[in-house]
Amino acid sequence: MTPPPHPGQFSFRPVDPVADALLLHSWVTHPKAAFWLMGDASVADVEHAYADIAQAPHQEAFIGRYDRTPAFVMERYDPARVELTGLYEAEPGDVGMHFLVAPVAATRGTTQGTARIHGFTRAVIRAVMTELFADPATRRVVVEPDVRNAAVHVLNKTVGFEVVRQIKKPEKDALLSVCTRERFEAMR
User: Fold this and answer.
1) How far is the C-alpha of 166 from the C-alpha of 52, rounded, in Å?
2) Which residue of 33, 49, 75, 92 has the smallest Cβ count within 10 Å?
3) What residues contact 170, with CB distance under 8 A and at least 6 apart?
4) What is the pLDDT of residues 106-129, one digit of tens each?
5) Rounded to an integer, what distance in angstroms lies between the CA atom of residue 170 and that of residue 117?
């Protein structure tokens, strides 16, 4: 069994909507990405969605790499202006986040994803949180996963997220959850 990844094996680069569209399409349309809500998207739809994010003033998307191989996507946004506008009590220093780990492939390094590595998804969310809290202005990370996504709720708890309440978004019922810098540090 491969040991869990360590933080130095992860890096981030901005998504290139054109160059990354095919790769991201293979991730967001995979059955395990059902909660990403892009299962029926075309490659052009994915390119357009990430081009919109790249041009938006309050959103960014990054390809997360594991040992220089694309392995996940992370989106960072201002939750007071995107996704959660009017749905929660925003505080200074809030940063919204989405992440999706590439589907498991038979061998690491293929365009489909990474090989199965014990603890990989937990290592990815820790890397994502570390990256977000690397900005000293970030005080809390805010997420809004689908209420039915039990796996991500468990994962979120491992890095310090606490559920605030259930909220209704146009596309889903979600569990508004927050993680403070202090809570994340205490969970490390």
Assistant:
1) 28
2) 92
3) none
4) 334 444 445 567 789 999 999 999
5) 35
